[in-house]
Design goal:
Order of helices and strands of chain A: HHHEHEHEEHHHHHHHHHH
Strand order of the largest sheet of chain A: 2-1-3-4
Structural class of chain A: mainly alpha
Oligomer: heterodimer
Number of domains of chain A: 2
Number of domains of chain B: 2
Structural class of chain B: alpha/beta
Shape of chain B: elongated
Distance between the termini of chain B: 49 Å
Helix content of chain B: 25-40%
CATH class of the largest domain in chain B: Alpha Beta
Largest sheet of chain B: 6 strands, mixed
Chain lengths: 369, 342
């Protein structure tokens, strides 16, 4: 009778979901691939923040001919190396030992009486260092420079893209494994299909959010180590908005990945059914990067559920969005997530027990199993 | 636990009731805890896979489910487990419709085997036990017991994919039994098992049946089903061709065939009207008597049916010709019954 007393009226939906999520997490964290992937990303963040400072740093170096040139270069705080004549300066430039050479201008066409000799392209940083320009007063200064904005949006997009892709693929694979090994029949006879779907998405979401949290915590450390404290303070604000958008966007895509997995019966066929979902990830990713400067496109993208998780934080970051806009988008996203969970569980249960090469969406929807 | 005493007394009744069928209230108790399939139909497109299928699986009895490939066994089992929906008819357990909660207490071994290939045997069985509603400790405890019973305890820590097919099959059986199911539905539980494994699995299943669990299992190995089952359901072309107790079916389908050994050549039997020779070998003859022939006039009133009459005619004739060493009905094997009804 031990079984009768231990059994508390069957497993509830929540209990089944938790068990399934737990198994997904265990399985994923037990695989080497998961940790290798994660390790590469974290190491990548540190490498990107620290290494450029080690190699790319330092003042531009110039070879100078004559005292005028040397004085000007030193005044501009350039790394100066005096040489006797233009010919030897050119040798240094050709060899790449210096970035450019400052030589006297014998023809007198330059008002400064100096010329700059460089190898292939005009050395703008040196020209700028030697130039005098009037001060600029901005009436509506942007908090963040344009280049920095691009960098931050690009990084957010990259993180979202990679997380959606890596974890999404893991969800699809986990679904196919159950179909391919036929354990699905036992599972379907035991727990509601919706618990199966919810548990899978929950498990992988926990892992994805966990990784993102670690990345979010590691990034400030990496930036500080790399001496980018200024970047750190500007990134903190948009990061706050990026998190809820990321979470909802991830779950939205996770539903699609699960359905894509349930459409086929073998790992080998997964590519064909996941191509649509891949597109749904790629389009917002490239859309946000390419149309960053197009206000109209960005506004539209920030309201479309699939691109909103990227486009809305980007617009907030650049200061284009009104305060109420992210709230509206969040509501749209929540509705889209709810709808996609409902749609996904219908498609999922309609296609799970079909073992053809590829289940048609219409058939899965109609449940003519 | 308020349920426990009730369940205990019910089980007690079941064990006791399984034997004396005549006690009416015991029969009532039985009715209450059986699996009843009534008029179930199911089509796949144009194909009518099941047509008005009705039968019952009774507590404490092993019910064999036999039929040719594609006759509808797996479809029936999937409908019982709710994996497929019936297009008509009902499946009831204890007189009530089978819901998700009820189904969770069933044990199922699907025809297409499958467990997570990379998960360890014990972890996997424990996990399935918990999905069926056991707490962790009970699930672990049951897993240990089952693996031991199935001689699989040495492989408990290995991933399923590293086991031989026969051992994977044992693990699959453990997966169906881990939550002490109230009903067992096993699709071809013996396929792929060596004779020793068959005995092991058989022992485990018999023990469950003895505890009062109804067991429905399908098999192609008719000799095995014959040895094993108490009740039999024969399905052909999506319809039930015959069902009932094993002996009952034997009587029903076997009473027309007789074997006789006489002192001399038995060739004369060919000339007896209403008799069909199955086998004739010198003094030994196996024959069937046809229905629907009026009793021989000399036996009128002495025998009850035409069938009895006909075999008595043969016996009479044999005795008149000389000695009769043996004469009696032939008990048909399940294979013969199967051939006859399908």
């Amino acid at each position: 009778m031990s079984a009768d007393t231990a059994r508390t009226g069957g497993t509830s939906f929540l209990a089944s979901t938790r068990l399934i999520a737990e198994r997904e997490i265990r399985t994923q964290t037990a695989s080497k691939g998961f940790w290798i992937n994660f390790g590469v990303i974290v190491v990548g963040i540190f490498v990107l923040s620290i290494v450029p400072g080690l190699f790319g740093g330092g003042e531009p170096s110039v070879a100078t001919v004559g005292s005028d040139a040397a004085r000007v270069a030193e005044a501009a705080e350039l790394d100066t190396q005096p040489v006797p004549d233009r010919a030897s300066a050119e040798v240094l430039v050709q060899a790449g030992d210096v970035d450019a050479a400052i030589v006297p201008d014998p023809e007198g066409s330059s008002p400064l009486g100096l010329r700059i000799v460089a190898e292939q392209s005009s050395p703008d940083d040196i020209v700028a260092a030697l130039s005098v320009s009037p001060p600029v007063d901005l009436l509506n200064p942007s908090e963040v420079s344009d280049g920095l904005q691009f960098l931050v949006v690009f990084l957010f997009a990259l993180v979202f893209f990679m997380a959606s892709f890596i974890f999404g693929m893991a969800i699809a694979q986990s679904v196919v494994t159950e179909k391919q090994t036929r354990i699905i029949e036992i599972l379907v006879a035991t727990v509601p299909v919706r618990a199966l779907l919810t548990g899978k998405i929950a498990g992988h979401s926990v892992l994805a959010f966990g990784q993102i949290t670690v990345i979010a915590l590691a990034t400030p450390v990496a930036l500080r180590l790399g001496g980018h404290d200024d970047l750190l303070s500007t990134i903190a604000g948009p990061l706050g908005w990026f998190v809820p958008f990321f979470a909802l966007g991830f779950v939205l895509l996770a539903c699609m990945w699960a359905v894509a997995g349930s459409m086929v019966s073998r790992q080998e066929d997964l590519g064909s059914s996941t191509s649509l979902v891949s597109t749904l990830i790629m389009i917002p990713y490239f859309g946000v990067i390419f149309f960053r400067d197009n206000d109209l496109v960005m506004t539209v993208l920030s309201y479309v559920p699939f691109s909103a998780p990227l486009a809305m934080p980007a617009r907030l970051f650049s200061g284009d969005a009104q305060g109420w806009e992210p709230v509206v988008t969040l509501v749209i996203l929540i509705v889209a997530v709810a709808a996609s969970i409902m749609m996904a569980s219908r498609l999922y249960s309609g296609s799970l027990l079909q073992t053809g090469a590829r289940v048609r969406l219409g058939r899965a929807w109609a449940r003519t199993d | 636990m308020a349920l426990a005493p009730d369940a205990a007394s019910r089980r007690g009744h079941l064990l006791w009731a399984a034997r004396p069928r005549c006690v009416s209230h015991a029969v009532e108790m039985w009715r209450a805890t059986l699996l009843q399939i009534r008029s179930v139909s199911r089509s796949f497109g144009e194909l009518r896979a099941l047509d008005d299928v009705s039968f019952a699986v009774e507590p404490g009895r092993m019910t064999g489910f036999v039929g040719a490939n594609g006759s509808g066994k797996t479809t029936t089992m999937r409908i019982i487990l709710g994996v497929l929906a019936p297009h008509g008819g009902t499946v009831t357990w204890n007189g009530a419709p089978v819901t998700q909660g009820v189904r969770q207490r069933f044990g199922y071994m699907p025809e297409e085997r499958g467990l997570y290939p990379k998960m360890r045997v014990a972890d996997q069985i424990t996990y399935l036990g918990r999905l069926h509603g056991l707490d962790r400790a009970t699930a672990q405890h049951n897993t240990r017991d089952l693996l031991e019973q199935l001689n699989l305890e040495s492989r408990a820590g290995d991933p399923i994919e590293e086991l031989s097919l026969g051992n994977q099959q044992r693990a699959q059986i453990a997966a169906a039994l881990v939550h002490d199911p109230e009903l067992l539905i096993l699709d071809e539980p013996f396929s792929g098992l060596d004779p020793i494994a068959v005995e092991t699995v058989l022992g485990v299943l018999r023990e469950r049946a003895a505890r009062g669990v109804p067991v429905l299992f399908s098999s192609h190995q008719l000799d095995l089903v014959e040895r094993l089952c108490d009740d039999l359901v024969i399905i052909a072309g999506g319809a039930i061709a015959a069902s009932g107790g094993r002996e009952e079916l034997r009587d029903k389908f076997g009473s027309r065939r007789f074997q006789m050994v006489v002192g001399d050549d038995a060739g004369w039997i060919r000339d007896v009207p209403g008799v069909q020779i199955v086998e004739l070998d010198g003094p030994r003859a196996v024959f069937e008597v046809a229905d629907g022939i009026a009793p021989a006039p000399e036996l009128a009133g002495r025998v009850e049916s035409t069938q009895d009459a006909r075999d008595q005619v043969v016996l009479d004739a044999a005795l008149r010709r000389g000695s009769v060493h043996s004469f009696g009905p032939v008990t048909p094997s399940l294979a013969e019954i199967f051939r006859e009804v399908v």
